[in-house]
Structures are given as structure tokens and as C-alpha cells.
Amino acid sequence: MVSKTKANFIISLQKKKVREDEKLYVIEGDKLVKEFLAAKVSVMTLVAKPEFLNSLPLFHKHGIGEIIPASYDELKKISSLKTPHNALAVIEMPEVKMDFADLKMGLKVALDFVQDPGNLGTIIRAAAWFGIKNIYCSEDCVDVYNPKVIQASMGAILNVKVFYTDLVKLFEKASENKIRIYGALIEGESIYSHKLGNQGIILLGNESKGISEELLPFITDKIMIPKITDAKSGIDSLNVSMAASVIFSEFTRSKGRLL
Amino acid sequence: MVSKTKANFIISLQKKKVREDEKLYVIEGDKLVKEFLAAKVSVMTLVAKPEFLNSLPLFHKHGIGEIIPASYDELKKISSLKTPHNALAVIEMPEVKMDFADLKMGLKVALDFVQDPGNLGTIIRAAAWFGIKNIYCSEDCVDVYNPKVIQASMGAILNVKVFYTDLVKLFEKASENKIRIYGALIEGESIYSHKLGNQGIILLGNESKGISEELLPFITDKIMIPKITDAKSGIDSLNVSMAASVIFSEFTRSKGRLL
Fold first, then answer.
1. Closest CB to B233 among A38, A125, A233
2. What is the CATH number of the domain that holds A9?
3. Which one of A201, A236, B134, B209 is least enclosed by Cβ atoms within 10 Å?
């Protein structure tokens, strides 16, 4: 049974402020919870239907702070979704420490004021797919532990580190170290012809405003995805998460990056 | 003022059955409505705040069946969104007629049982961007006139024709005409190395089940997007709309398609 205090606590984690104070966040969904358990992530509380709990291998239950069997109605009460899944877990946030030395190796992504949780989740998923391990978010980006981001990222968050930081400072450091910054801009050069490198930072801007003025001077490579259409209306831009997927793909292809 | 009958009628268009019977659908949002008016689409009813109506150029108002000024509360009542926009319009569905002769020219997309409205909307947007004009949906795909599809497609629906059809029959026709069918499959060949053509049909499957068994024999080219990761968990597949964007981009790049 889920006590009232526990229920209220889990619900309170839907708020960013509470998540930050407690250093905890919530994941929902049978598959997602199983993936987190398999990845040996630190799980404080697991609330799930008895059937779900019975289906777990014993060694997955080790190390879980507390396991609470619950009914559909109890899960519905604490879920952020209209229709709850069979399992929900409270997870400890990993400590993420920025290391500027990291910047020099491989491809990274920087996101400037990306607001839509679905977009951030999808970008994390695309980054994980294309082997990009670090995402630097400006401090006004949507919170990575927002339930909708977690849902859209589909477990890919286990493979990608997301940092919140002052992008101006980050880019100053990058510039000092001659690290290329690829900015996705309407007036950029086609990603199909621009010479892409094997390392650097891919910078993507806000859904409607694009990249902030103050970040523009740091861009060393202006890139864009060519529009192949004669249409006069209706398509101003690709969605930022689609653009991310296409750009990550093109970096991968052009450099023959393979693990 | 929006009469009660009118309000109920507009709300009833949230149901697919009613949309099909009436051959009407609803769009919401200031920018979207303006784009539809600019594109000279047949608008039966425009419900909007007086400020919005006043901001319209006179020639955009010509040909609108009826214009109803409305308050925020009235718009909220008839909107499918939690927070209504300033304008909502009832649009006549265009007659779309399948022409098999079309199949022979350029790139097309076929979607097998794509269920998520956001995915269909995003795929339409990506298709429009990359100059793909025809999308063939299996009859069990989500309805293109579903409000969430329209919202996600962001007006791109004005530039892409969406047909609902029996994909087996379509592919039989395609096979007779030696049209290549590119199926996105886990066991496919990398899109970076597979020789892509300038025409044919790109087939994408359901979000969790992939491409139906019955369609597999028609596939002439099995393709996939390589995963560049050493991660053991969390990334089974790219979301179908991200995969679509990447595949459309790679067809574009490899053939130097330009208008």
C-alpha cells in the first residue's frame, strides 16, 4: 500500500524545485523501469503492481530502497500520466560533473533554450543512437528530469550525460581550445557540402527564436539542412529534434564514425 | 457569437467518423489559420477573436463561408486544446485521388500502421521539407485530420498529399511497374552505403511492431540507420519520425536532389 505521505511525496517530484532539492526524479512505465533496474541505477522506491514485481528477476530487486506493491488506483493517483503504467520508480539523480577536458574529444551537443520536453527527450534519444554522450543545455532549457522528457527519451538518458551550464562560458573555453562550434542557422552552409569534423560542439537553438544573439560570435561553422521544396507556405523550419537527428546522422556518415 | 448548435458541431468534428461524413476538419492557431487562408484553402467557418479578424488582410476574408467573432471562453469551449488559440477554422477536406501513374515519379512514402498523431504530423513536416509530395498510409494509420496530427504538421499538410489505401494492392502495382520499395528494417543495409535511387517508395512501419509480415515480400531494398553506440541498454530504435527525417535527408544528399 502506498501511504498518503509517500503518495504526496512522489507527486511533489513532478515539480522541478522539489526534484532539485531532493536530488530525485520519477520514471514511469514497465519497460523503462526494467531498463533502469538492469542498468543498476540507484532506485530509491519502486511502486508497482504485484504482477510486475513477480515478473522481476530476483537480482534486479537487490539494492532497491523500498518496494511497494500497489493497485491500479494507487498508481493512477501518483502518476503524471492520464493512464498509469504498471510500475513507477523514484530514482536518485546521478552526480554530473563538467570536465572541460571532455570537450576536446568527440562530438558534443549544446542546446540553447530548448523548451519543449518532447524535443529534449527526442534529442537525447537521437544523441544516444549516434553515439554522442554529452549534451550541454543552457540554464533556461527544459529540465531533463521533467516526466515528459524522461518519457520521450525512452531510456536513452541512461547513455547520455546532460549538463546545465552557462553556454557563453562553455564556448569561451571551447574557443580557447580551438574547438569547432557548429551552429544550425538558416543562413548556414548545407550540411551536405560543408566539411564536417570528427569533433566539436553542435549548437541547436530555441524552437521559435533560434540561437541567441550572444552565442553567435562563438560559432565557427554555420550549417543548415537544405530545403528541397517549391512550396510557398507551411514549412518555415524543421522541428529542432528532427534537425538534430539529420545533423547527427550527417556527421556520422561523412566521417565514417563507427564504434 | 458562437451558437450552441455551431459549437456542438465544431466539437463533433473531433471525432473521425463525423469528419469523414461531413468531409470537414478543424485547424487551430493564429499562424496555421493565416497560412491556410493565404494558401486559398476552402474555409467553411472561421471562429476568432475580433483582434485576429481585424488583423487579416481583406482579400483573405473573401471566400470564407462564415466568420464568427468569439470570446476567449467561446473559443475554449470549442477547442481541442487545453488553452485555445485566437483562431480556429473549419476546413473542407480536399478530394484526393490516387493516381498510380504518379508512383513512377520521384520519391514517395508509405506508412504501415503508424499510430501516434505526433509521429504522422512530424513525418508530413519532414516530407514537405525534403520535397516528398505523396504519403500513402495503410488504412489503420492514425487519421491525418486528427487535431494532433494537424498541430504537429504545422501547415506542411498544405504541401503534401496523404492517401489512405491498401498497401498490399499499392505495392502489387508498384512491383508490376518495377518501382523500388525501400523498407526500413533492423536487418537492413546501412543507408550510408546502400545505393539509393531517385525514385521509389520509402516504407516505414509501426512504432513498436515495425513493418507487417504481409508487406515484407514487396520490399526490394532493405535499409537501416546504423546505430553508433556501445550502450547496452535504452536504445532499441530511433523514433519513426526521426528515422523518417534521417532517411529523407540521406536520399536527398546522395542523389543531389534539388528543385
1. A38
2. 3.30.1330.30
3. B209
Domain range for residue A80?
A: 4-92
CATH assignment at residue A122: 3.40.1280.10
Instruction: Give the residue from A239, A195, A212 showing the smallest Cα distance to B124.
Output: A239
Which of A158, A245, A250 has the CB atom closest to B242's CB atom? A245
Cβ contacts (< 8 Å) between B41 and chain A: which residues? none
Could you identify the residue written with the cell 505521505?
A: A5
Q: Beta strands A43-48 and A87-92: pairing type?
A: antiparallel
Whether A236 and B139 have beta carbons less than 8 Å apart is answered as no
Measure the CA–CA gap between A65 and A53, rounded to whole angstroms: 14
Neighboring chain B residues of A149 at a CB cutoff of 8 Å? none
Residues A112-126: tens digit of each pLDDT: 999 999 999 999 999
Can you tell me the distance from the alpha carbon of B13 to that of B20, in angstroms, rounded to the nearest whole number? 9
Cross-chain residue pair A155–B129, CB shorter than 8 Å: no
State the Cα–Cα distance between residues B112 and B161, nearest whole angstrom: 16
Which residues of chain B are modeled with pLDDT < 70? 230-236, 257-259
- Write the ipTM: 0.90
Minimal CA separation from B241 to chain A, in Å: 8
From B37, B59, B92, give the residue that closes a domain: B92
